[in-house]
Design brief:
The protein is an alpha/beta fold. A 4-stranded parallel sheet has the order 3-2-1-4. Helix 4 links the parallel strand 2 and strand 3. The longest helix has 18 residues.
Amino acid sequence: MQPEWRNVEAATLETFQNHRPSEYFSHLSDEGAFVDHLARVEDLYRFGLCLPPEFFDGKTVIDLGSGTGENSISLAVWGASCTLVDLNPEAIERAELVFDRRAPVGNRHRFIASSLFDLAECDLDESFDVAHSRGVFTHVKDKAKAFRILASYARPG
């Protein structure tokens, strides 16, 4: 029998697999909402995290728990090549549409439908300049393991 926290975590993961996460701007049609979203994200990165948009130009990024791409699309606009990973296939499909519409041409982006705990099975054997995850660790019990997985994809230095 599984510990109770495993049952809760399994139920949470099932919910995210079956329901697309919230979208924070009109991904495809409202240009003004998208511009406002980019400005809010830039403020967070520039002033909250001390990472100006220029930092991401030419970088490779992995986003674990990417959802529909609302966080990583900004990084792509700033010049990063992004690998988005989410356990919800519908969210990944939506992220592909967002990147097709909003990401600059020229950078390579990948989309992987997988739990971060199952990502090793996807033969993703590379490292990235930036390992990114936002809002995921609150939904997993084994946060240390989740962080080790995230950190394992960060290139040394």
